[in-house]
Amino acid sequence: MPMNQSEKEFFMRAALDEAKKGWGETHPQPMIGAVLVEGGKVVASAYIDRPGSRCPEARLLESLGRKPSAQASLFLTMEPGPSSNRLESGVRSIIDSGVKRVLIGASDPVVEQENKGSDALKEAGLEVERRILIEDCEDLNLVFNHWINHKTPILAAKSATTLDGKIACRTGESKWITGEQARQDVMRWRRLFPAIGVGAGTLIEDDPRLTSRIDGEEEWCGVRFVIDGLLRTAMERFLPSIYTDDFRDNTIVVTTDAAGTGYIRRLETEGVNVWVLPASNMKVPFPEFRKKCYDVGINGIYFEGGSKLTSELLHMRELDYHFNYRAPILLGDDKAKPVYRGMRIEKLSHALRLERVCTETFGDDQLMRGYLSYPSRSDVDETVFSND
Ligand SMILES: NC(=O)c1ccc[n+]([C@@H]2O[C@H](COP(=O)([O-])OP(=O)(O)OC[C@H]3O[C@@H](n4cnc5c(N)ncnc54)[C@H](OP(=O)(O)O)[C@@H]3O)[C@@H](O)[C@H]2O)c1
């Protein structure tokens, strides 16, 4: 009996769940899941569990230990293509297994490579159906897709705001704007992105741990970037915790050649890494920062503010993605800190926009996330930006 659309989506969801077992573990490779369905049941499954892992279709078919039945359907969240290094090995293992039907979620993320794997399967006589839950399958790899397409890390910012877009009271108090469920979701994204970033102000004011603490899992720490042009954070009498805790060798302070060498030495003595980038104005140059991240293989940074850092990223058009958690509270105070500031946009048609938007609810809070799309440079007066 042929499957109907909701059955196809049901099994693609199972393949997505399988792929998510590799959440945060596969960089710089994508997350990919595969399930084999026979007689309305999943009989084998596999996913990419680490960089360098063999293609999931090959592992799945090997774990099955026999030929798939004549009616078997193979579900793949991403087609076997060149970007995931599976064009030859993935296609070959599927053809050799004798499976006759393959259902695919996302195509290869690079436009020029799109459908190469599916076409190869079709040419070999297999029945191929594409685009099952395509948005979900593409969204799963937002970090990988950006990296492979643009050859630069994806820079994302997260903010937790009041209804009127404030990230802290006028006193600086910001704990907690959103509730526990939204904060647990942030922990999931911290676990996905290979690096987190904050500005010097947030580090001094909040002294965050910047680790991922998911209920029932061990505390996990990726790379922790601090953007600090003058090493103000190293001038503190008591250094922030991320310079002294057990994960301090995961901390990288990104500064400029205007920073004092004594402060650089103080951090390095603690075991903290320091990147000194050339800058004419004591500001970390984000294009250089991206380049350095690319060189060391860091493909995504999840910035958690504060307002000066994210506004500057936005103004420099260096922010690619935005996560906004909105809580049902309101300050109505001009002196409370806004998430973004310093722009001057006179027409709604010139506003920055989120595209490929995803929304989710966590208790009373709402998450809206998406890719930032910028107005054309001629439409906005970029000279008025100031984040003093
Ligand atoms: N609700 C939320 O989601 C959220 C998230 C994070 C933070 N917060 C709140 O935000 C507040 C802190 O925000 P903030 O705007 O004061 O601080 P911030 O953005 O964290 O840090 C600003 C400072 O970082 C340094 N910096 C930023 N961009 C730089 C660049 N390109 N190059 C070099 N240095 C750079 C500058 O230090 P110098 O001035 O020394 O040059 C700047 O003053 C706190 O109250 C915190 O609780 C809220």
Keyphrases for this structure?
388 residues; Dihydrofolate Reductase, subunit A; 28% helix; 11 helices; five-stranded mixed beta sheet; Cytidine Deaminase, domain 2; alpha/beta; binds NADP nicotinamide-adenine-dinucleotide phosphate; elongated; 2 domains
The main sheet orders its strands as: 11-10-9-8-12-6-13-16-15
User: How many independent structural domains?
Assistant: 2
Strand content: 15-25%
- Cα radius of gyration in angstroms: 23 Å
Q: Low-confidence spans: pLDDT under 50, at least 5 residues?
A: none
Helix content: 25-40%
Question: What's the β-strand tally?
Answer: 16
N/C terminus separation: 66 Å
What do the pLDDT scores average to? 94
Number of discrete helical segments: 11
- Taken in chain order, the helices and strands follow as HEEHEHEHEHHEEHEHEEHEHEHEEEE
Can you tell me about this structure?
This protein is of the alpha/beta class. It has two domains: 5-142, Cytidine Deaminase, domain 2 (3-Layer(aba) Sandwich), CATH 3.40.140; 152-384, Dihydrofolate Reductase, subunit A, CATH 3.40.430. It contains eleven helices and 16 strands. The protein has helices spanning 5-19, 56-64, 87-97, 116-123, 134-140, 142-150, 180-192, 200-206, 261-270, 286-296, 307-315; strands at 33-38, 41-47, 73-78, 101-106, 127-129, 154-161, 166-168, 195-199, 223-227, 251-256, 273-277, 300-303, 321-326, 337-338, 353-362, 365-373. The strands form three sheets. It has a nine-stranded mixed β-sheet with strand order 11-10-9-8-12-6-13-16-15. Strands 2-1-3-4-5 form a five-stranded mixed β-sheet, with helices on both faces. Strands 7-14 form a two-stranded antiparallel ribbon. Helix 2 (56-64) runs parallel beside helix 3 and helix 3 (87-97) packs parallel to helix 4. The chain is elongated, with a radius of gyration of 23 Å. The N and C termini lie far apart (66 Å). 42% of the residues are buried. Bound molecules: NADP nicotinamide-adenine-dinucleotide phosphate. NADP nicotinamide-adenine-dinucleotide phosphate binds next to strand 6, strand 7, strand 8, helix 8 and helix 11.
